[in-house]
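Today's session is about reading a structure prediction critically. Students often jump straight to the picture, but the first step is always the sequence itself: look for stretches that repeat, for charged clusters, for runs of hydrophobic residues. Only then move on to the predicted structure, which in these notes is written as discrete structure tokens rather than atom positions. Here is the chain we will use throughout the hour.
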Amino acid sequence: MHSIATRCSAVLSRGFGPSIALVKIYDTSTRSLVALPERPGPVRMYFCGPTVYQRIHVGNARPFVLSMWLRRWLIECGYDVTLVENITDVNDKIYDAARAEGIASTDLAAQAAAWYVEDTALLGLGRPDVEPLVTETMPEIVGLIEDLVARELAYEADGDVYFRVRDFEDYGCLSRQRPDDVQEQEPNAAKEDPRDFALWKGQKPSEDAHWPSPWGDGRPGWHIECSAMAEKFLGTDFEIHGGGLDLVFPHHENELAQSRGAGREFAKIWMHNGMLQLTGEKMSKSLGNIATLREVVEEWGRETLLLYFMTGLWRNPIDFSIDAMDAAASQVESFRNALRSGGAPSEASPAADSANDAGWQELVAALEDDFNTAAALAIFHGWRATGQHALLRRGLALFGLDGLEVEDAVPPDLAALARARVAARAAKDFDEADRLREQIEQAGWGVRDTVSGFELVRRR
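Below is the predicted structure for this chain, in token form.
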């Protein structure tokens, strides 16, 4: 029996090789920093988007924000960038949720996909270059499965098609799973091996949406969907594949096996962002400890949420709490106050240009070293403290935080409602305080209690 390191040596050596490029990203497969190709690249990126059956929680926003920030930064660095981020609109979870609600699965998926686009648009970061749907990629999915069947890496069993895990010797290299230790992913007595996973699932009476295939009507397995969508829009090999850390196994392990098994090189760097945690647990719909992205943006404003995401290195877990959001809101206000007091942007002198170039290189160094946004945020605070407002505006704009200095004048009637709410709370008339809060929120503002009384913030 070969060790994991020996057995995986071939698959782990398929990166870019020696490069003089400076931008380096941590790669899950090699557990090391890997340099991107020389500018202008290209840099082609595929990030796994959500499975859409309800409004996404704030944790789902982290890979979206990371991918959009990285795209902005690489373009700033002179790279030719293409970002594909899929929307999974065919999945077991969608069928289950649709049955529970008594509606068609396609209708639920379409509505939830629209919610996802609406809610991520609240972040003000723009859109990926391509946002493919599984339902629009069926010919490519079927074609990829046919290739695997022709290579005898896949087989039909009672209308389903399964991938032969034992015949792909690199299986487990991404996640460091030993193939002999892999537990059954999808129970089915008709499978040759309990470890094999589904590429195509035959139509079940309880599933209302299905598509034709050489193996009968049905729908694709989860993993083959992303392999096909990535290849359709980025080609058979590309630079970066991203997604949440919870996708390393089995989803990304299976993607890699399918695509490499079919003769595609597939992704060179695997980026897995850490999860949001609430009181130490991963934030997820299944646990119930969630806040939707829309709720968080409406309560705190998009700038506070974006700055909150900056506070942690992208591949580490990050705690989500009221205290954490309060701290992020305070930092946003410190930047806003500095920019407002610093006056309007003006033409820089040659000496100022030189200082700005040196300051900007400090930010470049932080972001070229594994896209360290926490280090970038510390640099921004240094610029704020020293009055380097031109640099601060430029840096904040990279992360969607431009426009902080725009003044939001509080309407006098809302200020009066907020003062009345403070008085109601002091009198312990909490029903009246809640009524006044609702009235303020209906007008498009949020109210927060402070030591001095209250703060009104326009919801963005």
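Discussion point for the tutorial: The radius of gyration is 25 Å.
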